[in-house]
Amino acid sequence: MLLPVPLRLIGRLILAVLAVVGLAGLFLALTVLTNGARGGLAAWLTAFGAGVVAALWRGRGRTWPGRLWPFAPVIVAAVLTASVCVPTAPTTRQYPPDLPFVATRHWSLSTGSRVAVYRYPPAAGALRHPTPLVYLHGGPVRSISVLDHRFLRLLAGQGYDVYAYEQPGGGRSDLLPMEQYTISRSVRDLAAFIDRLNRGPVDVLGFSAGAVVLTRALATPDVAVHVHRAIIAEPGPMDGPTALISGQQGRPSARGLVPAPTGPRATRVPRYAVALGLIQLGLLPPDTSLITQAEGVNAFKAADLGSDTASAYCARDAGRIPAEDTAENFSFSAAASLRIMRTIKDSPSIASELKRSRTPAMLMIAECSSQVRQWETTILGADPAIERTQYMPGVGHHMWNGLDDNNERAAAVITAFLQSEPSPLRNYPTRADIPAFLRGHR
């Protein structure tokens, strides 16, 4: 018995939708299998060819108009998946313009990295400190935010000769071949930068991912000897075993309390949503042929960070989170960042090496930190040269954020440590406090 025409039509539509989904799934599978060869074109041609063959097979024995119907889902799937193969961002590196308030210099390091360098000399009239201060920013592999630049100017205003450089692949620094983005390379770049500076041992302030680089530098004797004093601020996991720890975070952050960020984002473009999504899932390597490294950096926008920015602020600040950066200055290599983080996760423990550290150090922990507390306390427990820990009340992961007097409070504890002066905050938590500190953050 023949089905009524509407039911037959609905059945055909369902089959057509399933065919489109199946061909799109085949395209994605082939993209993974071919590592996005030729920008996804190899997978697209193969999937399209398979669809044409299937449409011809389904149309056999039908009258001529009926033979065309099976090609409809093939055409729809081809159009949808073709958008993954067409770049919408420049495929050659587009560097951010220079900042109006600080000169950008480029240094070629002995490691082969060419990095963008910024200097904030001691302010006129301030008591000058002889030891240079080097800042290692977070990310990893992103530009130094405008908020960070403002904080560095504050430190320079207190007499410090401040230097900062953007890691290779981020900001105005040159790219590296993808396989060279490793945490070991980041440590070697720090050593090469200090050597290029040629000012003797330096003080180093490392924040977030930069704090991880600094921690691993302290566990590397050939590098640690060039560090005069170290400030480890809000570190991520220092090695593979630490990265496996899942535990308590700080007091509630603003994550989920603010609207999603506005503005353009790469993850709304099929090509970059697919590429970055498959890289994030580990189905494509960071050096995939689907998109070039430069194209990925050019495409990625601040809004693609999602709720990460909100997670760096206390819940009480949800209604007044500052603009951390400008669209012109923002630059982030998601693929290179993932590559470095994977090398951290794959690395063996550095605890035994860190236990031999003799470089005077200070650990900074934020009250509303989005970092796992054990990432921070593991460093505290392993490094015997940490002289003081500063638990910073009223701030999230991004401790110097321009709100209230947060910048001044962060600068006060940093300068007190660098000058071996009493801190405005008590030394907490100490190593003996770690169990109680962790219990208090469940």
TrEMBL record:
The keyword Plastid does not apply. InterPro entries: AB_hydrolase_1, AB_hydrolase_fold, Carboxylesterase_BioH. The chain crosses the membrane at residues 12-33, 39-57, 69-89. This is Alpha/beta fold hydrolase. Keywords: Hydrolase, Membrane, Transmembrane, Transmembrane helix. It comes from the Bacteria. One of its GO terms (molecular function) is hydrolase activity. SUPFAM superfamilies: alpha/beta-Hydrolases (SSF53474). Residues 132-235 form the AB hydrolase-1 domain. The lineage of its organism: Bacteria, Bacillati, Actinomycetota, Actinomycetes, Streptosporangiales.
